């Protein structure tokens, strides 16, 4: 199986002879060049966009102590609270079991899929990533199931239908198509994934290698690049946002420790 | 039953999530403020010509000052977890009263002016220009949020609609669209010293009257001091405690506890108000200015400790913000937290065995307890998280024989707002107040049917006033609401107090 080959032969995947990037790119197909540019662009947008937002969040002061209480009274407690939110979606669990189950299935599936995909970017493939490979497939299935559940709620529940905008549908469609195109390549139409790995390793090491012109693969990669570009400009910012949420990340100690924002200091005598 | 020119919701045994009814409460708006109430707070008197531009500028300023606002406007994924959590949605069915529906009123403006997606593809992401219609929606629906934070408990990112509605009110104030109720009250605080506009001499009369009442009832000289320099404790309490029922019975209770523990204490005529409506209008500057009165009073009177009376949002400002707004408190006795809640004081005194009670004095009541939203979700009492739930209950159990909690889904961190918090306790919002109280009254009604509960104990002036007013709409009695320190007052046995028997003999002789 190609999958197995990719992992087991990981070490031998890198091109044996380093080549002059300029010379190689001269032989590349138009598609390969296009996708190379697309992924450089997408990665740059994702990275720069996220850094910009994270810096913005970090620089904006939280002038008042507003943890939702009962809240932890020390930093270790806050770290534990945040970990429960990130790993188990604790507040969502309190709020709505259906959203929680679909949301958690989707995110955990996505997490496994992401781990599985690391094999395309690291060489040799680390043992834990080798071990997680079969679970990544289940992750792909879970991801799509969770997404379909979340999408169904946007039609079935009148309150959720009311708050759903076009962009909310589009992001779900995007994610579902990414999942389905990926699963298709696993179960129905196999692609030359060793070449895919060579392509991405090439992007990372500047030793370019051709991308197979497989329609399903091209669709999958185009959608993923789109997701990367959309990420820093959309509600996907909930990912970094959670870590900066004052109601979740503040320590409940206002009487013990005076909390004063820089701009509020100006009001003091 | 009180008369209503709107349909009072029917109480159900099992909480039901209603189907949405768009614009069901679009007609609900509080009275607009007047220039005379705007200007003392530093706001323009009327809506100005270039209001749109000014409002966007103000929003930009707040986005740079409040991380909460910035993060919460970006982070919502419209999952729907909050949609059935707001008491105003449950009571009115208006989808703009779903927390996310309310937030989106601001989010669509934020997206239009502050995000790339909203500038390029407004329709796609639901962005909208800040039009007059949007402003009217803001005024209506940001005054249908009691800033109770229930939504923030259930949001996977902790998005707190209170933060959004505070910012919205501040933006509106900055363009001259203020709410009369809050802004008139804050002007009164600046002018006279408290929300109700009670001048010093009136306070003195009231407190003397209380001393006489307590002396008549118990035969013990309990003092209710005002402006007494050198006292140990400055008590800051909501001004409703000075005259309204059942609030004043709570104040009587605080005095008895202080007396029995043997500490000297005083009220201040300068800082004769615990409430801080600056929070409701989201104005840091006004909230700070109101808080500074307490610092000045503490310094002028030379007290060692500060204790707050029963008031919900006041305890939030006191517990969470006072150190920030009016600290540092290094001139006070470092052995005590600053400030303390009267409930912490009484609880500690009970733990130390300093108080004696005759619980049977409360046997005419079967009680339940209403966790006030601000106390429950924005503060703490005692050393441990959750003390804000356990300490009041421990005090109630120490002074009463009959106590039952309401349904677990409606108490503690999941408590429902009384329906009148957040600057909405005004007659021009009566329909909203009655409908918003539905989830709380439903839980109360259930525990009345199942356990025979007769009275609802509360530790917030707004809750007490709101319940007194709206219980009759649901066929209940206004005096079913009691202060927790009223219960303490009923049961406490003061040293040297005449017992029931002696009183009986006296009355026998008189006859």
Give unreliable regions of chain A as ranges. 1-5, 8-26
Q: Give the quaternary arrangement of the chains.
A: heterodimer
Provide the succession of SSEs of chain B. Answer: HHHHHHHHHHHEHEHEHEHEHHHHEHEHH
- As a percent range, the share of helical residues of chain A equals 55-70%
The overall strand count of chain B is 7
Largest interface: A-B, 63 and 73 residues
Strand arrangement, largest sheet of chain B?
2-1-3-4
Provide a short characterization of the protein structure:
The complex is a heterodimer of chains A (269) and B (511). Chain A is mostly helical.
Task: Kindly describe this structure.
The complex is a heterodimer of chains A (269) and B (511). Chain A has 269 residues and is mainly α. Chain A has helices at residues 2-8, 21-27, 30-59, 75-88, 90-95, 97-117, 127-156, 158-163, 166-187, 193-205, 215-230, 238-243, 246-249, 262-265. Chain A has one domain (2-7, 20-252): Fumarate Reductase Cytochrome B subunit (Up-down Bundle), CATH 1.20.950. Chain A has 14 helices and no strands. The radius of gyration of chain A is 22 Å and the shape is globular. Chain A starts with a helix and ends with a helix. Chain B has 2 domains: 35-185, Orthogonal Bundle (Fumarate Reductase Iron-sulfur Protein, Chain B, domain 2); 192-404 and 453-491, no CATH class. In chain B, helix 2 crosses helix 9 (161-174). The longest helix of chain B is centred in the middle third of the chain and has 19 residues, at 200-218. Classes of the chains: A mainly alpha (269), B mainly alpha (511). Chains A and B meet through helix 3, helix 5, helix 8, helix 9 and helix 12 of A and helix 2, helix 3, helix 5, helix 8 and helix 13 of B.
